[in-house]
Specification:
By secondary structure, this protein is an alpha/beta fold. Helix content is 32%, strand content 20%. The chain binds zinc ion.
Length: 409
């Protein structure tokens, strides 16, 4: 028995008056998910706990049964792992932007004109750099994004950022956030690194060329989101499942990688509304041949929600639904457990995450059925799963897979 887990980011929503009081999911025509809902078990999922509004990072930890209150130390480590840096327990990881600073020391663009090319070469200029015995690892991501790791003894993640978050301001100073010598040392290393980086980047050929071409140089690094790399449970050891992670966004790949999942990379799967859904679910279908458990993440639902675009969110859900035909019992060869949900609600009226629970459906060929016929927030409340927490769902899925882990004799 295999397990497919589809997470639509920010799926949950609230009634939209233009939709006659239905949510974007309820308004969408989703015959495939409705079929799975009618054959399966339904419920409402409080991903972390009732009343707690998750971030996408803490939400995904909870969905995989990893307690975010115990393991979460910040977003930096996951972004770094998602970009491809091999993070080690104890490393201090940061989210980083290539930015533009003018000779007066004022940030003129926090994203260096959304630089698209050349950041790989810029990051290479830092290879082998050490400051005060601390190894510095910089890796470029997509566009202006990068990840930074400080590796060595006596470091702390209790350090402030230098990103002013607005333009035409000077970068902030790194400050220790507690009294420890580790925090003080980390702030000192960062300060000296950023000064060095400014010189290295200003002298880089790519930036000289960009200036000649009237493009903004990527001559500064804005650093934020410090997190000490935690030791996460290994997902494959924990559940004895060979696991694949299929996602476009770096954060999700990073969480998968740090949990020991195999990351399937394909350039057609960007993280957002322009991802090639057909390719993503074809890859998912193929991965189910090789892996026991396939986690597939789609981000578009959340992106539209943050913009308040409920029509586009609803249409995007319809597009996802179309791709799920492959996994319906009549089309899929083999036994498959299917779990579909979101990582949190992002109501279009909030344009931000909320603590509202998300609908979840779990289907297996011989699961108990309930009377729910459609996949949606207001239907799910009548389902047999009732109200469950994120930490429960892996256990429920394993039970459907007959991988019973008995508690007691
Ligand atoms: Zn999310």
């Amino acid at each position: 028995m295999k397990l497919l887990f589809v997470v639509m980011d920010g799926l949950g929503d609230r009634p939209i008056s233009e939709f006659g009081g239905q949510t974007p999911l309820e308004y969408a025509k989703t015959p495939n998910m409705d079929k799975l809902a009618s054959l399966g078990m339904n419920g409402l999922l409080h991903v972390i706990a009732p009343g707690v509004t998750p971030g996408s990072d803490t939400a995904h930890l909870a969905l995989f049964g990893v307690d975010p209150y115990e393991y979460y130390t910040g977003r930096g480590p996951f972004e770094a792992a998602g970009i491809g840096l091999v993070v080690k327990e104890g490393d201090i990881a940061f989210r980083t932007n290539f930015a533009t600073i003018n000779p007066e020391g004022v940030i003129t663009d926090r994203r260096a004109g959304r630089i698209r090319e050349g950041t790989d070469q810029l990051a290479k200029l830092f290879e082998g750099l050490e400051i005060d015995g601390i190894e510095i690892l910089l890796e470029a991501g997509t566009e202006h994004r990068a990840a930074l790791i400080l590796r060595g003894d006596g470091l702390s993640d209790q350090v402030s950022e230098n990103d002013p978050h607005v333009e035409r301001k000077e970068p902030l100073e790194f400050k220790p956030l507690d009294e420890s010598p580790e925090a003080e040392k980390t702030a000192r290393v960062l300060t000296s690194f950023v000064m060095k980086a400014r010189t290295i980047l200003n002298n880089a050929e790519i930036n000289k060329k960009r200036v000649e071409e009237d493009l903004l140089p990527a001559n500064y690094l804005l650093i934020r989101g410090a997190g000490k790399v935690p030791k996460l449970p290994n997902f494959e050891e924990e559940y004895c499942l060979e696991t694949a992670c299929i996602a476009g966004g770096g954060l999700y790949k990073g969480i998968g990688r740090m949990l020991g999942m195999h990351i399937i990379e394909d350039s057609r799967m960007s993280g957002g509304t322009t991802t090639d859904l057909s390719a993503k679910f074809e890859i998912t279908h193929n991965a189910l041949n090789d892996y026991d458990f396939v986690f597939t993440h789609v981000k578009g639902t959340d992106n539209y929600s943050h913009d308040g675009k409920y029509k586009e969110k609803s249409e995007f859900i319809e597009r996802v639904d179309k791709e799920l035909y492959r996994f319906l019992p009549e089309n899929y060869e083999g036994d498959l457990v299917i779990m579909i949900t979101g990582d949190h609600s992002t109501p279009c009226s909030f344009k931000d995450h909320s603590a509202d629970p998300v609908p979840i459906l779990i289907y297996s060929p011989d699961c108990r059925r309930d009377k729910v016929e459609k996949f949606g927030e207001s239907y799910a409340v009548d389902g047999s799963l009732g109200h469950i927490l994120g930490k429960h769902i892996m256990g429920i899925a394993l039970n459907e897979m007959r991988l019973v882990r008995k508690f007691g004799a």
